[in-house]
Amino acid sequence: MRTRAAVTRENGHLAIEEVELAPPKDQEVLVRMCSAGVCHSDLHTLRGELRAVPPLVLGHEGAGIVEAVGSRITRCKPGDRIVVNWLPACECCQTCLSGRQNLCERLASTTFKALLVDGTSRLTTADGLPLKHFLSAATMAEHAVIDESSVVPIPDGVPFDIAAVIGCAVATGVGAVTNTAQAQPGLPAAVIGCGGVGLSALLGCKLAGCNPIIAVDVLDSKLEFAKALGADDTLNSTGSEDVAKDLRAITGGGPEYVFDSVGAASTIDLAIKAVRPGGTATIVGLHAAKQAVEIPAGALVLQNKRLLGSFAGSIRPRLDLPKLLGLYLGGRLPLDDLITKRYPLDELGTAFEDMEAGRVARGVLVLAPQA
Ligand SMILES: [Zn+2]
Ligand SMILES: [Zn+2]
Q1: What are the tens digits of pLDDT across the range 74-96?
Q2: Which of the listed residues 281, 309, 337 is the one where a domain comes to its end?
Q3: Cα(248) to centroid(ligand 2), Å
Q4: pTM above 0.90, yes or no
Q5: Which of 123, 204, 237, 320 could potentially form a cystine with 315 if both were Cys, beta carbons 3.0 to 4.6 Å apart?
Q6: Same structural domain for residues 50 and 151?
Q7: Omega into 55 within 30° of 0, i.e. cis?
């Protein structure tokens, strides 16, 4: 079938164009996409900065309606509302069996190479160029074919755009707090970087009962989003001579937990410095993914600090995504305030620009009527 999609033919090239989508195989599902979140990982991939290389269809946060299913599908049927899980874990390798589905052994050989989990693709351009599926998802399109392991049902009452952002930004940010750091109530926390993931970590800190919660960013516009989502205090790091010292002053000794959604050498350094003795610095962002970062060994040992990496919020998707959807329904995750702008597919370029400039908390593409 023909559908419209956000295509990257080469690094830096973005076009919304008609593509050819082959029917789903036995274990796959055809989805009419309704919403797709706009994430930094898509922008990094557009620029060729991550492992998935063009030509491919972008998008990995998404939600929609099942239109057709392969012959062996048991988890869903046509008409079901689903969120796309971009971590299609096999649930039978040693890593999955140990409860670490976010690190499933097959992700490296398929998902991170922008292939479906059987190692192939269903996408080509209208002129016959093979295309890949970013993170086994390719949700920035009017239709997508995904593996059954990428399907998570959406309960009634959760809008498609909310479900879409739960699938990546919210899972990554909230999961870093509740799964990776396992933050405890009543203790101070700081979040560095207030994009979609950082703001989701802030919501995770609220959910965990951390107090107070301080948001750190270089842009006042993003700190305003943090305030609206319930940050107790904010700190613009460009106006501070010593951010760690300021965080110690605000929290009376330093945050017990620091969540770094940026992951640059400077913010990782800040996270380790700022956290109080015995506290935990959790690195969520991937800015310095290809760099070596200096670690102050004395501070780690003499002050008994913990430094953790958190990939995709350490989530077990089929367990944690339904939990997060339920927390939204129960009013415990105010995600309506996280999505601050919606765009048609044709305005994806503008959505990326707004994200980079800090004009949105989270932007979402509207791909179909939201009924
Ligand atoms: Zn596995
Ligand atoms: Zn993402």
Answers
A1: 999 999 999 999 999 999 999 99
A2: 309
A3: 31
A4: yes
A5: 320
A6: yes
A7: yes
